[in-house]
Write a structure and sequence with these properties.
Distance between the termini: 50 Å
CATH class of the largest domain: Mainly Beta
CATH architecture of the largest domain: Beta Barrel
CATH topology of the largest domain: OB fold (Dihydrolipoamide Acetyltransferase, E2P)
Number of domains: 2
Strand content: 35-45%
Helix content: 10-25%
Number of helices: 5
Radius of gyration: 29 Å
CATH superfamily of the largest domain: Nucleic acid-binding proteins
Largest sheet: 6 strands, antiparallel
Shape: elongated
Structural class: alpha+beta
Number of strands: 14
């Protein structure tokens, strides 16, 4: 999910920016904090940090320290502490996304413009098949039968809203900072169990399979007198006697 991190990074300020950094003519108008945030935004936003997640925005700068002069071109290196908002899927969390592409052996979904997640057929409901003509996936739901006893079929198409459960997130140990569209991380997830998968599936078959009323609930309803307005007396008649 979305989290807030306090991080520290060494950044390089090019000589072209030193006038804004120091502003010798009017020191009160120097903007090191604003310039630091701008440089961090360019370097980190829409990038994956190893073991942390995808940086969405650099919110503010906490402090700037340890300026080092670069004798090669006259720039400076500074150590900056900053806060940023990061997106990182949490294991066992349920998320909703939109089907972006369907392949013969997998379905690809995307959530809020974030990196896509690929589901092989093995991570979907059992008995899920690829429909080459419609370019969709079809799930044969044998537990929910038609009136004639035949199985019910549910289809997944591009554009459908789906829910999935995150199993784990793996980061590439060789890449500390990588663009979001790279293979810097892999999200392992599944859509095997109810109520995972396309959202419209369950509004379809739950309508035909209402949950049976519990025996205790039936017994309590039978004891309810339509003319009985005393709620306390009714509860006493339903609940077991206690000494």
């Amino acid at each position: 999910m979305f989290r807030c991190y306090l991080l520290e990074k060494l950044i390089y300020v090019h000589p072209n920016f030193l006038k804004l950094w120091y502003n010798f003519e009017n020191p009160e108008k120097s903007e090191p904090f604003r310039l630091s945030r701008h440089l961090l935004q360019c370097q980190l936003v829409n990038h994956v940090l190893q073991g942390i997640g995808l940086v969405v925005i650099v919110t503010d700068i906490w402090d700037i320290k340890d300026e080092y002069f670069d004798p090669v071109d006259g720039g400076i290196f500074v150590r900056v502490r900053f806060r940023c908002k990061v997106y990182s899927p949490v294991p066992r969390s349920i998320m909703q996304a939109t089907v972006e592409k369907i392949e013969p052996d997998a379905v690809i979904v995307r959530h809020l413009g974030l990196p896509s997640v690929r589901f092989p057929l093995s991570s979907l409901h059992p008995e899920t098949l690829f429909n080459a003509e419609q370019k969709s996936l079809v799930w044969k739901k044998t537990q929910v039968a038609q009136a004639d006893g035949s199985a019910k079929y549910f289809e997944t198409k591009v554009g459908d809203k789906v829910k999935y459960q995150v199993d784990k997130v793996e980061y590439d140990e060789h890449k500390r900072i990588s663009p979001a569209d790279s293979d810097a991380w892999t999200v392992h997830a599944n859509m095997k169990t109810v109520p995972l998968g396309p959202v419209h599936w369950y509004s379809t078959f739950h309508k035909h399979t209402p949950a049976p009323a519990h025996d205790l609930l039936k017994e309590a309803l039978n004891k309810l007198d339509p003319d009985q307005s005393d709620r306390l007396r009714f509860l006493r008649s339903v609940l077991p006697n206690r000494k």
